[in-house]
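Hypothesis: this fold can be encoded by more than one sequence.
Test: take the structure tokens below, design a sequence, compare later.
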């Protein structure tokens, strides 16, 4: 059974001293015969899903990811072939870890759901999610289906940092965790309490920091898969049980990745296919978009160590498709049109912090009633976000603004610690479409700029179309551009291009974001009747 893995503190990716040597890996053959095979392209998901834990249950693959201050948290992805993925649900229904996650007197930016672990326990046919919050305690949620409902099983007073959860073959639950000092904890049979813990490995100073644990039992051996943020991957092996002793081997270091201008594939987890083939799903730092999952085949040495298969000395841009059974159906695309039908939001949506559920609804479109009086979008509740599809994509929103009130601000943002938006300002009974840039935070995630209007145009009637195009390829110039339409056909550019920031310290990548907040008084509303993410 394969399980868990890890993520960061603000210091976790301090620039690392250049290390010598390139990752040792077997080279895949090249040539016409190899090229003729059906292939997949990396990144397998060009959206922001970091700190991946990946596993297979029967013929279905699942993966989890970090979401920090977004709610619901800890998305669970599903695939039948390791290449095509959909978002099935979220393991953490709400960030009920304190008032800051409600934007109530404090804010939870870059806190919340960090590297966590996803596991399946065959004995009770139950999925487990485990993660620490705010370095204070560990939470464990369970569900019998990944779509949910998920419920909190327990809270453990020990914060298992960057945890990997293992369901052993005798059904015992173990957790590998830590930074530099790696420990293993044993949980009670019901998973509710901490039984014992023991340090099993201390990272040598020549390696530096290791974290992001994933914990496996493979052919009777125990393995802890660890990352050297953000340029290496190591593995520990024990033949004497989960508490060691462990020996270490380097898996990769300073390996060229599959995204031009992006980072080294690292962290993530190992997974075995039905036919016995192994794969490593890592992520690649590729800001401004975030951290993108990439997949590579793995072989094993005779003495039980994994070797990543390389192409021309690098993580391949393409590899042969995994040999798996024919999928039972196509997965649900992560892009396309949403008209907000039904009674709930689709799982590709996540709120910036917890929403005020009395101030929004779906059914006949998405209605956002103003939930906050503020001039600062970073304090506004009920901002609804959607990951940006790379390398470039466009979000188009059809917005009914007839119920806006004076002082209201509503629109479509490119949201991160340096943000910009196109939207509507209602003042003095008149409505204008505007582009605003200069929404900024400092390194402690306090607001330093609430935005400057850089372009505007008057609009009449009650409907407008807003459009944001985002080029999230790493490097320069990383432009975001904005336009609007009054008929949904002809779009007019509004304002200069916005250069999206690419500093890694916010961790989460840019997102498209729908918002509506008041600056004077509550009572106004907008209705999004159609949202679409399209790619060239």
């Amino acid at each position: 059974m394969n399980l868990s893995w890890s993520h960061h503190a603000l210091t976790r990716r301090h620039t690392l001293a250049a290390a010598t040597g390139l990752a040792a890996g077997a080279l895949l053959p090249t040539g016409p015969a190899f090229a003729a095979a059906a292939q997949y392209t990396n990144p397998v998901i060009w959206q922001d899903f970091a700190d991946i834990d990946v596993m297979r249950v029967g013929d279905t693959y699942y993966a989890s990811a970090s979401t920090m201050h977004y709610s619901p948290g800890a998305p669970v992805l599903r695939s039948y072939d390791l290449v095509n993925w959909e978002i099935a649900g979220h393991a953490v229904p709400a960030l009920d870890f304190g008032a800051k996650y409600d934007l109530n007197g404090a804010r939870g930016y870059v806190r919340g759901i960090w590297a966590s672990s996803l596991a399946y326990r065959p004995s009770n046919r139950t999925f487990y999610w485990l993660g620490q919050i705010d370095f204070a305690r560990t939470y464990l949620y369970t569900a019998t289906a990944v779509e949910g409902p998920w419920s909190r099983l327990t809270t453990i007073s020990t914060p298992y940092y960057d945890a990997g959860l293992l369901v052993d073959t005798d059904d015992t639950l173990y957790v590998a965790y830590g930074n530099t000092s790696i420990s293993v904890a044993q949980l009670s049979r019901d998973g509710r309490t901490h039984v014992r813990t023991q340090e099993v490995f201390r990272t040598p100073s020549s390696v530096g920091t290791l974290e992001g644990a994933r914990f496996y039992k493979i052919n009777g051996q125990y393995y802890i898969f660890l990352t050297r943020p953000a340029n290496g991957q190591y593995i520990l092996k024990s033949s004497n049980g989960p508490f060691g002793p462990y020996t270490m081997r380097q898996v990769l270091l300073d390996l060229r990745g599959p995204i031009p201008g992006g980072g080294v594939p690292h962290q993530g987890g190992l997974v075995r296919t039905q036919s016995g083939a192994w794969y490593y799903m890592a992520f690649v730092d590729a800001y401004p978009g975030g951290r993108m999952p990439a997949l590579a085949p793995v072989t094993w040495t005779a003495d039980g160590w994994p070797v990543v298969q390389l192409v021309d000395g690098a993580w391949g841009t393409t590899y042969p498709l995994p040999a798996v059974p024919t999928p039972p159906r196509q997965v649900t695309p992560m892009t396309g049109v949403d008209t907000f039908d039904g009674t709930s939001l689709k799982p590709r949506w996540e709120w910036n912090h917890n929403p005020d559920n009395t101030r929004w609804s779906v059914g006949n479109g998405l209605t956002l009633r103003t939930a906050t009086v503020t001039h600062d979008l970073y304090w506004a509740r009920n901002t609804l976000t959607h990951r940006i599809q790379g390398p470039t994509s466009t979000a188009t929103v059809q917005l009914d603004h007839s119920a806006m009130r004076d002082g209201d601000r509503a629109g479509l943002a490119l949201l991160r610690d340096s943000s910009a938006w196109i939207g509507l300002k209602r003042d003095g009974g008149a409505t204008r479409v505007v582009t605003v840039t200069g929404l900024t935070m400092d390194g402690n995630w306090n607001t330093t700029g609430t935005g400057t209007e850089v372009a505007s145009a008057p609009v009449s009637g009650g409907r407008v179309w807003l459009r944001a195009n985002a080029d999230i390829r790493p490097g320069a110039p990383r432009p975001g551009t904005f336009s609007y339409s009054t008929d949904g056909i002809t779009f007019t550019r509004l304002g200069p291009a916005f250069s999206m920031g690419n500093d890694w310290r916010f961790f989460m990548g840019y997102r498209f974001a729908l918002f509506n907040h008041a600056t004077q008084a509550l009572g106004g509303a907008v209705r999004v009747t159609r949202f679409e993410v399209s790619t060239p």
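The first helix runs from residue 32 to 36. Helices lie at 32-36.
Hypothesis status: open.
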